[in-house]
TrEMBL record:
Domain of life: Eukaryota
InterPro entries in the cross-refs: LRR_15 (IPR056867), LRR_dom_sf (IPR032675)
Protein name, entry field: Leucine-rich repeat domain-containing protein
Pfam families, per database record: LRR_15 (PF24969)
Domain Leucine-rich repeat span(s) in chain numbering: 59-407
Species this chain originates from: Penicillium salamii
Length: 459
């Protein structure tokens, strides 16, 4: 019986989803070992400095393995102690010291880098490994408040400084950055903000990157950034190929203008606000309207403040601003999906009716509208506004789905879902009654209507 061609064997191997199954293949025979080992390295997850060290030695000794890596994941990284003999093994490793020396610009930098590696620093190990992986498509990073090695390395990559004179990360498509306070070392990080905005910028300048996700991004105007007083290192307007931005638990006091303005064709922008950052001045939706105005013809998905956290007081003082309305969305001609808080969607302030009707705030291209954070006192008004939208359906021919989220449950029923009660019974009957006219209009228009309550976790 003739042996299966290698191409067929590889297709079979790719269908094996569990890494343990792929590992089993390499022990079948020498032929299978050589054929399937690169497949095992297709997606790599490094969870400690020991994983990183083993991976480094493997790919340096066999560069074909480095070229096989398509996805690298550090999100499960945890700090591990370094024993004295392990410390010495790292500092005395010729392969490691030679590589670090080749990517450093001075002996002092190289020595400091090696010492950080010997301390198990995630920042140092990540910065050491990344330049080796020329075929990366997806990258999931963790970073601490201070990440000097990773930041320095990425700055050199995008600037084409030695040893990165040949374009690096030419195939990288998706990048995610996760700030981890547990990785902070020493006292120097106290009361400092995460440097994610600084770390993000180099990835925006890589020509192949399309999707960027990050958390704990703190927006600063360029003039206040001590590391970039002139702003000359930031991307030019419309320079970046990034089309999707997802920022979580972040603070965009200035509407993330530097990041948004760099995108030539932004299609999706998702933002979740958090007042937990030292420099947070509260949520300012109108700042995002100004920033996103350059993307009015391309933006298809807009999520603003999905389940964000808001404190009564911020660094700016009492967190009560009338700067809550995002602004009209009518000019966002490509917009298909909107997820936004009610007070950001409509300019109501303390009024009974919005200053500008909802029908004049929505784009004709809209397909899905998710309204979050609706207080019960505004529910009747919102229902009326949405009914007007449906009655003028010719202006919104693509609208198919409306969802409303708010605090609609009975206080006495807060624990009813834990006893297996029917979920809808936990939402106040008068809310369903108030929504019934809208429900009828939606049914007649062939649209879907859903009512949510975030306290009911499995809705």
């Amino acid at each position: 019986m003739a042996a299966l061609p290698n191409d067929v064997l590889l297709l079979i191997g790719e269908e094996l989803q569990r890494k343990t199954d792929r590992w089993s293949l390499i022990f079948v025979s020498r032929h299978f070992h050589d054929l399937f080992l690169p497949l095992v390295y297709r997606k790599v997850s490094l969870q400690s400095w020991r994983d990183a060290a083993s991976f480094f030695y493997a790919v340096v000794k066999q560069p074909t393995l480095a070229r096989a890596v398509r996805e690298l994941d550090f999100t499960k990284w945890h700090a591990e102690g370094v024993r004295e003999y392990e410390h010495d093994n790292i500092t005395n490793c010729t392969l490691l010291t030679q590589w670090v020396s080749s990517v450093s610009h001075s002996q002092a930098e190289s020595d400091r880098w090696i010492q950080c590696l010997a301390q198990g620093s995630s920042d140092a190990w990540i910065a050491t490994i990344l330049p080796l992986l020329t075929q990366l498509r997806r990258l999931h990073l963790v970073y601490s408040t201070s990440s000097p090695h990773l930041d320095r390395m990425m700055q050199r990559v995008v600037s084409g400084e030695p040893p990165f004179t040949v374009p690096t990360f030419r195939h990288l498509d998706l990048v995610s950055l996760h700030h981890r306070e547990d990785l902070d070392q020493g006292d120097s990080s106290e009361n400092q903000e995460p440097s994610s905005s600084q770390l993000l910028l180099p990835f925006f300048q890589l020509p192949s990157v399309r999707v960027i996700t990050a958390n704990s991004v703190v927006d600063k105007p360029p003039s206040l950034d001590p590391d970039n007083l002139s702003g000359t290192d930031s991307p030019k307007a419309g320079f970046s190929s990034v089309t999707e931005i997802d920022l979580r638990a972040s603070s965009g006091n200035h509407g993330m203008e530097m990041l948004i303005a760099s995108c030539a064709e932004l299609k999706s922008f998702k933002y979740q606000h958090s007042d937990a950052h030292v420099l947070s001045h509260g949520y300012r939706p109108s700042a995002f309207h100004r920033s996103l105005s350059s993307s009015k013809k391309t933006l298809q998905t807009l999520w603003l403040d999905h389940y964000g956290s808001h404190y009564p007081f911020t660094a700016a003082g009492l967190n009560q601003s009338h700067d809550e309305w995002f602004g009209s969305l009518a000019d966002f001609t490509a917009l298909r999906e909107v997820r936004v808080r009610l007070t950001n969607l409509l300019d109501i302030r303390l009024l009974d009716e919005p200053v500008i009707p909802l029908v004049d705030c929505l784009p004709s291209s809209l397909e899905t509208l998710y309204i979050e954070g609706c207080e019960e006192r505004y529910f009747g008004m919102l229902v009326s506004q949405l009914q007007t939208v449906i009655k003028t359906r010719d202006r919104f021919p693509k609208l198919q789905r409306i969802e409303i989220e708010g605090a609609f449950h009975n206080a006495s029923d807060e624990n009813s879902h834990s006893s297996g009660a029917v979920l809808e019974s936990a939402i106040k009957n008068k809310v369903f009654q108030a929504a019934e006219p809208l429900h009828i209009d939606c049914v007649n228009a062939g649209m879907e209507l859903r009512i949510h309550d975030r306290a009911l976790s499995y809705f």
